[in-house]
Specification:
Layout: E1 2-5, H1 10-22, E2 27-32, E3 36-38, E4 49-58, H2 62-75, E5 93-95, E6 104-105, E7 110-111, H3 120-129, H4 142-154, E8 163-165
Antiparallel strand pairs: 1-4, 1-5, 2-4, 3-4, 3-8, 6-7
Helix pairs in contact: 3-4
Amino acid sequence: MALGSNLGDSRRILQQAWQGLGQEETISLLDLSHPYVTAPVGMESENLFLNAVGILETNLEPENLLLLLQGVERDFGRDKKTGEGGYQDRLLDLDLLYCDDRLLVSSDLVLPHPHIAERLFVLAPLAEIDPKHLDPQTGMTAEAMYRELLQRMQSGKEALQEIQQGEWG
């Protein structure tokens, strides 16, 4: 799953959200990447984002896990209404990236997340904690997807995305 915030004390918010998920009986936290400071992608904002990727284990079905994640977002004051351009500044954003090797398309959820291959703020932390993770659609590892995105950015085929690894400290 991906965690992101660009309002408030983002480091504290992401840590509290992650720890809160670990308090759920149906969830076991396995690993959390370093935080990554990134410029907004797909939206205009003066606020930088703090992003991370976490691996968790659950027996919840993907739709139920999504509802739980949305509840956590609401607990942190997230209003699901989007701005005019689609995305907006947010205290907390939790996205389900994968659920094992499931492929799912519904009105509420698409798995794997449809924008993984385009987002350095997802691929860098994912490649950090699970470089050999196989994307069930492409068959590529997280590390290979990360390297491919970097190559597309370096060749000018994809817009450059600013990113810097941080510390939770």
